[in-house]
């Protein structure tokens, strides 16, 4: 093997804690992969496999992808069932002594991805826990905060339910790893992850839910008789916190449900009736959901899919839904206006999640701003229909006018795709930011003006503004002009022909500038 450099040593130490993931190791504008990760990634992504230190007897395999395009490559790896650990520089290279410190800031898995998702399909991370024939199931779409749980008395029904929700990733206790081949056969399109049994401990899971929802009791969530489901839900939250390296604060509730609340359509029937997937095309083309889905938002498309998976059987609930549908049919003009407004609404659920998880881009915020601007009009239109259920919904709808106003005032009209490009905040929103941006754009002019001002004030025509890494910016004065140096200058060092760095004091009126 090539000589192990400090950088490779750092890579190996970080990789040791993430053996089951492909490590994206940040180096400048690229994510680099080494050793076995590079071999796997180059094959899966169809990118060039090269090597580090080609002259060595046993060079290290490596490949890389541009940082700005990483999302596309990560999506491809997730689609093939891999996990990706994002290792970033967590120290300013200019201030680092030796090797820049790096840490894994997020682990992206098929069930926890926030970007590059099919807009009208949920992306569930599920967990299952069982005792005898009783099984608990919890599943979460991290991108929308849709969190649900149930408990069954049959492993067969658990498998049916997993087939219905189609999770991208399933968490099960490590004790079940001896049956790993069986699990993977049952769930061929789902990544099965075996977690330490402690993650499913009821006491820990119960406390984790209390902490997540910031409550003293779970009574209000209706989960008293669902201990196995609570254990599964706790495992889901534990896994999310571990992979995201932060608490997912946008998850505010969990919704329990029971098999008896809905019409049960087993997986075989769903497949034969081509409700969601075509026998001939493999996708949603020529399926019932394609025929019915006339929604204009991604949120509506996902909700329709949930309703089709879980048809109501309680007459009262069916009547409520039908009354709202009849109301829309009878008010065609208002219905058309509602649809028109909804066409300007982006995926608020997923935008909210990206904001909460700190991964929102400036353009995400622009989409959020535009969506919020439609809420007051939607609230008015829905309230004017006269339906009791719709009126109750509009009463609960907060148009978030304060957030909308903030985004309108702070964000430029056409923000860049990422923060690194700058130009995100509107000029005039923050006076101090405007001043700093002006300095960064016109630094040379500012320094030249400072030099001219100091020459005029001191009468030293040869005075110069200089810079070095030791003192930063300083004023250089020749020996012949030392008698003219004002008291406000602080003498720092003597050179042969000049006095560099008679520096401006920390406290001064006109001279309190960040560059000095």
Description:
This protein is α/β, with parallel strands linked by helices and 516 residues long. The protein folds into four domains: 6-108, DNA repair protein MutS, domain I (MutS, DNA mismatch repair protein, domain I, 3-Layer(aba) Sandwich), CATH 3.40.1170; 125-261, Nucleotidyltransferase, domain 5, CATH 3.30.420.110; 269-421, Orthogonal Bundle (MutS, DNA mismatch repair protein, Chain A, domain 3), CATH 1.10.1420; 443-499, MutS, DNA mismatch repair protein, Chain A, domain 3. It is 40% helix and 16% strand. It contains 19 helices and 15 strands. It has helices at 6-16, 35-45, 70-79, 155-165, 180-186, 202-213, 227-244, 267-272, 288-292, 298-309, 315-330, 332-342, 348-356, 362-373, 375-383, 388-396, 401-410, 431-441, 443-458; strands at 22-27, 30-34, 50-52, 60-66, 84-89, 102-108, 125-131, 134-141, 146-152, 169-173, 191-195, 255-256, 464-468, 472-478, 498-499.
List the helices and strands and how they pair.
Elements: H1 6-16, E1 22-27, E2 30-34, H2 35-45, E3 50-52, E4 60-66, H3 70-79, E5 84-89, E6 102-108, E7 125-131, E8 134-141, E9 146-152, H4 155-165, E10 169-173, H5 180-186, E11 191-195, H6 202-213, H7 227-244, E12 255-256, H8 267-272, H9 288-292, H10 298-309, H11 315-330, H12 332-342, H13 348-356, H14 362-373, H15 375-383, H16 388-396, H17 401-410, H18 431-441, H19 443-458, E13 464-468, E14 472-478, E15 498-499
Parallel strand pairs: 1-5, 7-10, 9-12, 10-11
Antiparallel strand pairs: 1-2, 2-4, 3-4, 5-6, 7-8, 8-9, 13-14, 14-15
Helix pairs in contact: 6-7, 12-15, 13-14, 14-17, 15-16
